[in-house]
Amino acid sequence: MRLVLATIVFAFLSQCFTHPCRADDPLPSWHDGPTKTAIVRFIERVTDEDSPNFVPEAERIATFDNDGCLWSEKPIYFQLVFAIDRVKELAPEHPEWKTRQPFKAVLEDDHEALAKSGMQGIAELVMATHTNMTTDEFAKTVESWLKTTRHPRFDRPYQELVFRPMLELLEYLRANGFKTYIVSGGGIEFLRVFAEEVYGIPPEQIIGSSIKTEFELRDGKPVIVRLPETDFINDKEGKPVGIHRHIGRRPIAAFGNSDGDLQMLQWTAAGAGPRFCLLVHHTDADREWAYDRDSHVGRLDKALDAANKNGWTIVDMKRDWKTIYPKPSGYAPY
Amino acid sequence: MRLVLATIVFAFLSQCFTHPCRADDPLPSWHDGPTKTAIVRFIERVTDEDSPNFVPEAERIATFDNDGCLWSEKPIYFQLVFAIDRVKELAPEHPEWKTRQPFKAVLEDDHEALAKSGMQGIAELVMATHTNMTTDEFAKTVESWLKTTRHPRFDRPYQELVFRPMLELLEYLRANGFKTYIVSGGGIEFLRVFAEEVYGIPPEQIIGSSIKTEFELRDGKPVIVRLPETDFINDKEGKPVGIHRHIGRRPIAAFGNSDGDLQMLQWTAAGAGPRFCLLVHHTDADREWAYDRDSHVGRLDKALDAANKNGWTIVDMKRDWKTIYPKPSGYAPY
Predict the structure, then answer these.
(1) Which ipTM was obtained for this model?
(2) What is the mean pLDDT of chain B?
(3) pLDDT tens-digit readout, B128-155
(4) What 3-state DSSP class applies to B103?
(5) Pairing label, strands A276-283, A313-316
(6) Which of A106, A329, B3, B137 maximizes the CB count within 10 A of its CB?
(7) Which of residues 210-239 of B touch A (CB under 8 A)?
């Protein structure tokens, strides 16, 4: 018994010596200051049964954007890297891609031509690489890609480029009876492959863009097949619609980082009772990236104005976060 | 303290005198027999950590059809009664309905003409009565209808025509770490109005048919508007698709009562590891209704053959259920 106690005390003390912390601090990677205080005060208010702002546990819904909010999104969305890698892998089966845009641009690493192809081009890449297979086959492809691919700047797997302060925030919310959801413009089935292990968020709490699927019996075995047709774009005006479709209840807290999250934050803020809206502002070019109004990926312009006007909380990444990413050994499931 | 204890003992004993029960019986409304035994054995197997059939809690997903499985569906689906009542209520604003089918049939209580209008007619009634309003407005309309309407045969609110044995089963599953879902051909937003209070199933665990919706700012206030356009039919082949869309994980147990549930049961049964599939067979014309292969509402034909072939569990309502409905005072939230 004494040995056990000594071990616990030693573990705790050594943790506090490596980076100073308070034992009761649920957000150790966040600097003390107004941002952290705003988060903690909100959670204390809605969980205090004696507070007029108390919210029953069933209604404690918190929604998080993914790209740029829970993990990085530069130089391009990680799911787009996946699509590009898949095009290169599948190219031998598609000789016609050598002369057809946007595939030609991908195969020749012609970033300018790829950028020119715009959203239409990206949609074509996604349809060509994400569909005409069963849902199980798609999940396996994503899983294997995540295992073997590394981010060019940080030389670590993409799922290790998640934000440690946000992981703490997710955990802190759940410890206080919140149900945490991802509400992403990214593909719902792409996210579901890693979200449970990386974020602790189960598949049924992922909301994302989707393509149509179809139930089929293949040799008597039921499968769900991914069709090359868009079903739903879970971005901008689509986010409140996706939230309502999946949850059927308005969130009381929402977290984003770009104009794609504006409507989710508006929808959340407009509910009755206490509300919390937060934007992650990328201000740290040294440790991550610095961008906002002029960025092609994750543009933060209208939503920044709305946050200032409505008093939403804004994370200044450089000022508010002690660390950005977990230690490389930390959260890598693969 | 003694008084408290005496009260508890008295409450327990009087319960056992009114209908004999065992203190540890999680399914007191079910007669002992092979059906009950099959349910209990399955739950014991998947929750026993020492069993080779143990299933981690996160994967204990159970899906339930609603109409005819959790509540009655005769003489017609209760949501169709709601649509008919709404047509009559809105008729003064729509003089054209007097001469236009299927509205004319509804207003003249012409059941034959209404039946003739078929699924297309029902869809028209639903579009005319369920759309062109905000999601909040729709929920209020359903709530008020449930409060004021009674079933013609049993003279009680529709939400008191839920099956008591199934309520016990839902509770039993949840007490064993299952997440319980409704997977219904009925409207997702219709179900969400009462499912939490009646079944203990929160809005985010309801999967149903849906119409398209749209996010809008009305005088600066965000609303979600219901459009007169079908989004998804969550029936037959649609059920596994709806399950995959919302849950992203295959159920290990599925409960239905008609051919509309066949694909959900096939999808569930085809997963690896222990699986449980059950059909409620309506065999009790005295206490509820008796119907199967020839019924227009809730036809049970192909699914019954599949159940017999695959050894799925079949509830014989007359033989297996001690009581059908809760006491009138019991589960009525309104």
Answers:
(1) 0.90
(2) 92
(3) 999 999 999 999 999 999 999 999 999 9
(4) helix
(5) parallel
(6) A106
(7) 210, 213-215, 217, 221-222, 224, 237-239
CB contact under 8 A, B249 and A206: no
Report how far residue B284's alpha carbon sits from residue B317's, in angstroms, rounded to the nearest whole number. Answer: 6
DSSP-based three-state secondary structure for A297 = coil
% of chain B with per-residue pLDDT over 90 = 86
B213–A241 CB contact, under 8 Å: yes
Instruction: Summarize the confidence of residues B276-280 as an average pLDDT.
Output: 98
* B247 and A CB contact within 8 Å: yes
In A, which residues are within 8 Å of B202 by CB distance? 58, 249
Query: CA nearest A79: which of A232, A231, A228, A186?
Result: A186
| A314, A279 Cβ separation under 8 angstroms | yes
Q: What is the pLDDT of residue B7?
A: 45
Q: Tell me the β-bridge partners of B283.
A: B290
Residue A258 and residue A244 in contact, taking contact as beta carbons nearer than 8 Å: no
Q: How far is Cα A162 from Cα A72, in angstroms, rounded to an integer?
A: 7
- Which of A246, A249, A263 is facing B246, going by the closest CB pair? A246
> Which of B244, B264, B277 should one mutate to test binding to chain A, selecting the residue with the greatest count of A CBs within 10 A?
B244
Looking at the complex, does the CB of residue A266 fall below 8 Å from at least one CB of chain B?
A: yes
> Which positions in chain A touch B211 (Cβ < 8 Å)?
none
Cα-to-chain-centroid distance, residue B186: 8
Q: What is the pLDDT of residues B16-58, one digit of tens each?
A: 444 445 568 999 999 999 999 999 999 999 999 999 999 999 9
Residue of B nearest to A266 (CA): B222
Residue A120's pLDDT is 87
pLDDT at B6 over 50: no
Which chain B positions have a beta carbon within 8 Å of A213's beta carbon? 241, 244-245
Give buried/exposed letters for A289-326 (b at 16+ CB in 10 A, else e).
Answer: bebbeebebbbbeebbebbeeeebbbbbbbebbeebbb
Instruction: Copy the structure tokens of residue B60.
Output: 């204990």
Please check whether residue A193 is in contact with residue A137, taking contact to mean a CB–CB distance below 8 angstroms. Answer: no
Answer yes or no: is pLDDT of B334 > 80.
no
B interface mutation test: which of A60, A245, A267 has the most B CBs within 10 A? A245
Pairwise CB contact (< 8 Å): A266 & B222? yes
pTM: 0.91
CB of B254 within 8 Å of a chain A CB? The answer is no
Residue A245 sits at the chain B interface (C-beta within 8 Å): yes
